[in-house]
Amino acid sequence: MALTGGCEALDQDWQDLLGKVARAGFYGVASTGIYCDFGCPSRPPLRKNLRVFAAAEQAEAGGYRRCKRCAARDVHAWTEAAPI
Ligand SMILES: [Zn+2]
Predict the structure, then answer these.
(1) d(CA 19, CA 64)
(2) Whether the predicted pLDDT of 84 surpasses 60
(3) How many domains does the chain fold into?
(4) Which of 59, 66, 69, 72 has the fewest CB atoms in 10 Å of its CB?
(5) 79 CA distance to ligand 1 middle (Å)
(6) What is the 8-class DSSP label of residue 83?
(7) Residue 84 C-alpha to ligand 1 middle, in angstroms?
(8) How many CB atoms lie within 10 A of CB 20?
(9) Residue 61 alpha carbon to ligand 1 centre in Å
(10) pLDDT grade, residue 83 (50/70/90)?
């Protein structure tokens, strides 16, 4: 299944990924077909393989599968840490 969707990673996305900043959104790795939330402890992908999604549903719709490491955490750290 071809992987589709997502946005090009901006410099800020890349910095947040490298810094493991737990923020809104998800990133997909086009070379593996896995997507993660920002702040996932997994090794960073190559930037050229990086796609950014606003919602998990968008990544799923694009053919990406959830990373086991951040799926285990289940909830976004940022939703816990930043009550509105
Ligand atoms: Zn992950």
Answers:
(1) 23
(2) no
(3) 1
(4) 72
(5) 16
(6) -
(7) 25
(8) 12
(9) 17
(10) very low
Residue 58 parent element (H or E): helix 56-61
- The answer to whether residues 39 and 77 touch, using CB atoms and an 8 Å cutoff, is yes
The pLDDT tens digits for 29-77 are 999 999 999 999 999 999 999 999 999 999 999 999 999 998 876 555 5
Q: Is residue 21 part of a domain?
A: yes
Whether the predicted model's global pTM rises above the 0.70 cut: yes
What is the predicted pLDDT for the residue at 1?
A: 64
DSSP character at residue 24 = S
- 44 lies in which domain range? 7-81
Tokens for 2? 């071809």
Residue 52 falls inside a structural domain: yes
